[in-house]
Amino acid sequence: MADAVARLKEAVMNYEMETIADLAKQSLKDGVDPLVAIEKGLAEGIKTVGERFGRGEIFLPELVMAAEAMKAALAVLEPAVPKGKHRSTAGKVLIGTVQDDIHEIGKNLVATMLSSNGFEVVDLGVNVPSSDFLKKADEHKAHIVAMSALMTTTMPRMAEVITPLKKKSKAVKVMIGGAPVTDTYAKEIGADGYSGDASSAVEVAKRLVR
Q: Do residues 63 and 106 both lie within one domain?
């Protein structure tokens, strides 16, 4: 069983998008606990990939492939988790790309990295109305609201969420990111954290829930 878990970890690290689903199915046939397969196999693999990315040893295409491999295996393993059993969670993150913006690669990578590091992630997708961020943050009792904007024209949408959110509750933290977004801008609009890439997003989120 340990070999099956190690093989899943390797499959993520080696970007085996075509074969990892079959490996996940085989691990279930072999009696591996799906939670163990996820936490000790997939999550450990994507963590290692994220660390390599952070050190500049690999680049964005490799990170994307590793994330896609992990998603393919999760599609097999998550439905097999027995009812009542849950992955340990570091906190709940509501994530989405702001209204009028349909870019999703960066947002998806951040969601995958957060999930693999123990966060429960609720992904609202792209082109998310500001009112939906507010409504869903309350509905899901999110600890963090994470927003992405890939265009300067959509960056102001972030403030549309932050201002009313902070008026309602200081407990919910906000982190933002995206190509045109900067740490200075994050501070200007009252965000609690800024991340320039998927790898550092994990550290920002961990800091916000301490």
A: no
